[in-house]
Amino acid sequence: MYRKNAWEHLADGERAKVMAFAEKYKAYLDAGKTERECVTEAVRLAKEAGFSDLNAILREGKPLQAGDRVYQAWMGKCIMLFIIGEKDIECGMNILGAHIDSPRIDIKQNPLYEDSGFAYLDTHYYGGIKKYQWVATPLALHGVVCKTDGSTITVSIGENEGDPVFYISDLLIHLAGDQMGKSAAKVIEGEQLNIIIGSEPVKEEDKWNVKANVLRLLKEQYGIEEEDFVSAEIEAVPAGKCRDVGFDRSMIGGYGHDDRVCAYPSMAALLDFEGTPAYTLCALLTDKEEIGSVGATGMNAKYFENTMAEIIANVKGTESNLVLRRCLRNSRMLSSDVSAGFDPNFAGCFEKKNASIVGNGVTFNKFTGSRGKGGSNDCNAEFVAMVRRICEDAGICWQTAELGAVDVGGGGTIAYICANYGMNVIDAGLPVLSMHAPWELISKVDLWMEYKCYCAFIKDAEEISY
Ligand code: MN
Ligand code: MN
Fold it and tell me: Going from the N-terminus, what domains does the chain have, and what CATH number goes with each?
């Protein structure tokens, strides 16, 4: 059903399924506050659903068969899940892609200092944030500290009841005359995002010292020395669990919906798939989308292509580059990322006929980008038609949208990168309010329609001849 309110079109008994799926998603969101944690949880869920580690299969030289379920994690920050299909892999795959990194505040490599009775961690934010939203709110610290002896210390502080949290201060309103006159971009500046982590000094060589006390506690409780921050990746994120929003509990507020609200159902569609698919299925959860898909774990890297070369060598017994090219070219993909949900408070930034409406279901963006579609993957109309048919056949509430009104702004996803292979790719996702804020808002019925759409797509999408 196109552009209809999904709550009004649920089948008898379907509301309970909406709510039950939302609970599973909430658990994933709470377990995965960093890309690494998302991968760890994905591996756990994949194993539970009978998926095997592809690396072990390749090492043993075991041939993959139709119906086999495998996963491969990459650098602990990306994960790919596959179900091998009946058809020749040259016919391409049905792929669900999304990203698992979210905007946040990263700790610098030389972060620790003391000033006026406080110990601080200095930071450099990650992704596009309104910096003023991240002050005067409880923060948790998540990440890893890699030691020179090869060991890794995993850190997660601030989520459990009884854990301490961390804090970035804002200026009191009483003295904020000048600050309130600044543009929002300057109200809090990047170098003011300093996290308070302690204030009780310890006496060291006759001098009282707050930083020394923090270092003592880090050493005692975690085995971390000051220089270890150099080889650490620690992310400050909003502390606490996601929550139901509204008297009707129809929505979820939480950190990191962008883009775990697409990543989780993409993965779940494969985890829940029963039997042997016609085409090989893939769920691809990638990293670094929020900073341009760069680095060894971003979509611009070759890890996905490398994994496909390994799978093809296994199932086809060939290292032919041509077979790999055909497989990728003939694939079909929903590149899923959140859409800008129409917000009546800011109606002027949208064009309502082409906006993603909360409650109207899974959203397709034929293109993203900005200023005349710049930087977008402008999906082929033929593929849009196939996606329409799949949604209609499966009784899914769906809609189409652009990211805001023309020339107001814009944004990109991983779609254009996968489209480089020649595959058919369309941006899919669901509407989010307050995207990139510490707490974002989504609708449970949109999440459900998104999941149903992914399940239908991997089952029903097929090759397109042009
Ligand atoms: Mn995103
Ligand atoms: Mn984003």
Answer: 6-102+255-460 (3.40.630.10), 104-238 (2.30.250.10)
